[in-house]
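Q&A FORM
Asked by: J.P.
Topic: structure of Heme chaperone HemW

PROVIDED:
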Amino acid sequence: MPPLHRWTPRALYIHIPFCTNKCFYCDFNSYVAAGQPIDAYLDALENEMRLTVEALPPTAIDTVFVGGGTPTVLTPPQMSRFLAAVKRHFPLADDVEFTMEANPGTTDMDKLAAMREGGVNRISFGAQTFDNALLERIGRIHAAQDVVQSIANAKAAGFTNLSIDLMFGLPNQTLAQLQDSVNKALELDLPHYSLYGLKVEENTLFYRLYQRDELPLPEEEEEVAMYEYLIERLSGAGYRHYEISNFARPGFESRHNTVYWHNEPYYGLGAGAHGYALGQRHINIKGVQPYIDAAGRDLPRLERSSVSAEEAMGDFMMVGLRLREGVTPAGFAKQFGGAGLEEVFGRELARLVDQGLLERSEHDQGYRLTSRGVLLGNEVFGAFV
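REPLIED BY: S.T.
REPLY: Here is the structure written out as tokens.
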């Protein structure tokens, strides 16, 4: 079989697992911050940074993404200390895209100054909806006005590369409510928007309610209508629908997430973080104290697994077809030692083209989702599992 990519990651993900509260739909590795040993966690994280660059020295880091949890629960001194550690251990490219997730209402001017000073140049705010009753219903503790204020603060602090997340398909959400939220989001005039359909995940309050038939979700047709509205409204406002759930002005696409969609390697640090390098995936220990104990001694791995070329090829197709530009023979060959896209997946591709879910791209001989394929993405991705 052809070799997997042998280059060291140029993307870095760091997990800060602390939150102000736990949202009803969230199954991320996150813990309410009150009473947590945050400083000890930052010590352990710095030790993991040191051990990581010893084990696999980076050349240059093009993208950094700090996710959570809510990284912005760190105090300004903790934030400064954390960001200084990142710069100390990882050689950041001059034009690095350095993203931090934030919750509306957790970014005052002092914190934003610490973030900017520390090298953050892109912020992604979890807005979810501009309907206060819906925010309460999904367990968010911010109000719609906090989103507006947080964006204003970020702009005043000099940030220009800003994004917000919105959700659709929420309990009792109507198309009209979604339209109102999208219009309010567009009034903020941001370069990037992420729009996600609610997924009911195990180990969440919503899952328990769903099991008891107490979660009034919109009907499937209503949810499809919401998604179609989003595509039409944002495209009409000049945003490029560059990935199934993401819209950007040209040049403001998320470079970090594009690494994932191209199935390229990345460093993953912090409790519960995933990483992918030199044909190996790892998952870190999840609990805060177990992570602190482990990362104080060695790389805090929960599990490691080698990825076969066959599995990596399937992953490449599943994530690559999320991008509206799709996958190309050239991209496939580059990642898999010259292997032919059609030699490996010709039968599946032909069937999906026949079903009207994929189409050929004239200029690069690649494959991408049709408009119908966008709505039925899971059927397409499932063909490559």
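FOLLOW-UP: The chain has two domains: 9-260, 327-380.
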